[in-house]
Amino acid sequence: GTVDINITAAAKVEKGGVTTYYTEFAEAWKKAQEGTAENPATVTLLKDVTLTETLTVTSGQNITLTSAKNSDGNDFTMNYAPEKSTSMSSAIEANGGTFELKGGTINVDVENGNGVDVKSDGTFKLTGGAIRVPGDRMHGVYVYGGTATISGGAITANGSVGNGVNVTSSGTATITGGTITADVQGVYVVKGTATISGGTITA
Per-residue pLDDT tens for 159-196? Predict the structure, then answer.
């Protein structure tokens, strides 16, 4: 006879032509951190997940996040909900590596937190998916000395202080597409460069 086994995977990782399924998203990300420029890794969300710690993309790593569709035809959500802290944090930090958001929704569920931090020598590409930061003191994308390229996707920043994209510490942002919606500034440059030639910004 046969035995039916129902295992619900949280994500799958594709790298080097090999696909591996994981029930824990943290384990999937750990595997994806083996991705490099020559052999990048793609993580696909297969259900809604909750994070309590920042996901990192460090020097030499190359990771793309995307999503399957849920029963309503929408992307799955990665909810960042660490324990409450007075220090700034982020759902994903690109520090020396390359991170691309191609699909899925990153939702930040903490007052002092950003969607994606792009630090020195880090690279972030927003080509699809969404970043939502509903708290008061958060930025959708915080470019702190790194490089961000936005050609698609959506950023929503609601709050009295947060911006859609905040560029500082000699960071660089290039915006050619996508949608940025913010209650304060859509794009705010403190010390750095932002080049905007496309997309929709509402603030």
Answer: 788 899 999 999 999 999 999 999 889 999 999 999 99
pLDDT digits (tens, 9 = 90+) for 83-93: 765 566 899 99
Please tell me the distance from the alpha carbon of residue 87 to that of residue 91, in angstroms, as a whole number.
13
Question: Using CA atoms, how far apart are residues 157 and 6, in angstroms rounded to an integer?
Answer: 38
One-letter identity of residue 121: D
What residues contact residue 113 under an 8 Å CB cut-off, 6+ apart? 80, 82, 88, 89, 90, 91, 133, 135, 138
Tokens matching residue 46: 């297969």
CA distance 203 to 12: 36
The pTM of the full predicted model, rounded to 2 decimals, is 0.93
**Burial of residue 184 (number of CB atoms within 10 Å: 0-12, 13-18, 19+):** middle
Question: What whole-number distance in Å separates Cα of residue 102 and Cα of residue 203?
Answer: 24
